[in-house]
Amino acid sequence: QVQLQESGPGLVRPSETLSLTCTVSGASLTTRYYHWNWVRRPPGKGVEYIGFVTWNNVTEYNPAFQSRASISRDFSKNQITLLLTAVTPEDTAVYYCAAAQGRVTTEGAGSWGQGTQVTVSS
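RESULT FIELD:
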């Protein structure tokens, strides 16, 4: 069974770049079975889809994040990375990585990590 664990800085200052890592176990990133997604849940709001990367480095992004987000994978470490540039307080959220057969836009789709809280504040 695939397991995912997010890690990141916790606190980021406005205008900086957020970098999050998802370590995957129980499955290889080389599998064609999964799309490796990043999603987030801002306080008091629903899930927001950010984007995904596939085994062959195909990426897709929510248009709302297209200009600021970058998702990549490292086969040697079996990790997925999210970079989000020019963060603002509106980027404060719990960020999750998720493995699914496609994009993840709803709760419960695929397998999720426990999430990591990111707060953007000066």
